[in-house]
Amino acid sequence: MELFDLIIIGGGISGLGLAREASLAGHSTLLLEAKRCGEATSNNTLRIIHGGFRYLQNFDIPRVIRSLNDQSALITEIPEAVKPLPCLMPLARFGMKSRIPVTCATMLYGGIMRITGSPLPSPTVVSHHTIQRDVPLLRDQAPHGALCWYDGLMVNPSVITAHLKSQIATLNGQLREETPVESMRRDGAHLIVTATTGEAWSARHVITTLGPFLDSIDTPQELQGPRPLWCRGFNIIIKRQLDPTYGISAESADGRLFFCVPRDSGTAIGTWYIPHLDISVPPSVSEHEIAQFLKAFNTALPTAQVATNEISHIDVGILPMHGTSTKGPNLIAHEKIHEKDGYVEVLSTKYTTFRSQARAILAAAKIG
Ligand SMILES: Cc1cc2nc3c(=O)[nH]c(=O)nc-3n(C[C@H](O)[C@H](O)[C@H](O)COP(=O)(O)OP(=O)(O)OC[C@H]3O[C@@H](n4cnc5c(N)ncnc54)[C@H](O)[C@@H]3O)c2cc1C
């Protein structure tokens, strides 16, 4: 039986990022993916590579730095896959989202961007007049002006998947697609991983990056980490281009946040989250849920008035959550990494930070 330093199970962005990082560090690595890499949750995102501006609301500076570093690295490494996206958020008259606090935040964020060497322009506050002139979608929505900042927008996640796969191969990492893992068990100092095909491999460390498919593998109970609650998230993709240039943020009266971004010749609007209590049920979206989404979105951004017959498709995925509040599910902010005796379970919450997440996993796994 072939022996590896590390076997990774699950070839979404988390598993791919980890396989590359582990191979770079010189560990013999096998990545096993049930279907095709990057085609589950990682293919259904809103495609934003966040720079973490919003984490300033909680003064979470380490998280801002981490997002900015990961964002810059991805834009620099695969410029054809991630394009700079100027984004707008209308300012409020009072409170944390009003002009003075937001201007202070732009100065702080601009300083952090310079220190981290971000290749993107610094954020600014733009006037009501400029918005009225340049952004018809927000013409009545920004009487106090708007914050303009830059995020990255993935042109197509499959470009990133292909790039990581080729790097893993170059670094002599092994990758097997169409290889669903059935079980994992301990045998002395090693862990044995068995696929549904009957093939088996052995490793000193096994890491699962399975997202919501965490329980698709038969694993010894004593090694498993705590199970989260789950929620479905979905984005509606419409054929109409709401704005050709900007990512636009809008908030409904009940505090639901929407973000519209250009996608091909149309627009992706997201994200709506709903508790998904039975993880064995594949995620889907009902007509009622679509109607609720559009009603709230059209209230948040009345100039858009999106109708059901404009929808080209819906992207849906599952994410871990803490629980729910009146504003909907409370998503888990940071990835969760559980390590026990050489076995590690990872729950990712962001595509953007796959690189720093990989480093955190390797540190937690104590592979040396
Ligand atoms: C609607 C939505 C919008 C989002 N938008 C953004 C965004 O704009 N920006 C951002 O940074 N993040 C976003 N996210 C979060 C991001 O998508 C996830 O954090 C990330 O994609 C999770 O990747 P993963 O590799 O952990 O999981 P997955 O991509 O789900 O990968 C798990 C893999 O495991 C494989 N697998 C399952 N069972 C087995 C088995 N038995 N054996 C082997 N392999 C198996 C699956 O086939 C799959 O490929 C969004 C999430 C959702 C749901």
Global outline = globular
**Structural class computed from helices and strand pairing:** alpha+beta
Largest sheet: 10 strands, mixed
Cα end-to-end separation: 22 Å
Provide the number of structural domains.
Answer: 3
Count of distinct strands = 18
| Overall pLDDT level | 96
Structural features, described:
This protein is of the alpha+beta class. It folds into three domains: 3-42 and 158-228 and 333-365, FAD/NAD(P)-binding domain (3-Layer(bba) Sandwich), CATH 3.50.50; 82-153, no CATH class; 229-331, D-Amino Acid Oxidase, Chain A, domain 2 (2-Layer Sandwich), CATH 3.30.9.10. It contains seven helices and 18 strands. The chain has helices at residues 13-24, 61-77, 99-116, 128-134, 157-170, 287-300, 354-365, and strands at 3-9, 29-32, 48-49, 82-90, 124-126, 146-154, 174-176, 181-187, 190-195, 200-208, 229-238, 247-251, 257-263, 266-275, 311-325, 328-331, 336-340, 343-347. Strands 3, 4, 5, 6, 11, 12, 13, 14, 15 and 16 form a ten-stranded mixed β-sheet that branches. Strands 1, 2, 7, 8, 9, 10, 17 and 18 form an eight-stranded mixed β-sheet that branches. Strand 12 (247-251) and strand 13 form a beta hairpin. The longest helix is centred in the first third of the chain and has 18 residues, at 99-116. The radius of gyration is 21 Å and the shape is globular. It starts with a strand and ends with a helix. The mean pLDDT is 96. Residues 9-15, 32-35, 40-42, 44-48, 50, 180-181, 209-211, 213, 216-217, 233-235, 270-271, 315, 317, 319, 348-352 line the site of flavin-adenine dinucleotide. Residues 9-15, 32-35, 40-42, 44-48, 50, 180-181, 209-211, 213, 216-217, 233-235, 270-271, 315, 317, 319, 348-352 line the site of flavin-adenine dinucleotide (FAD).
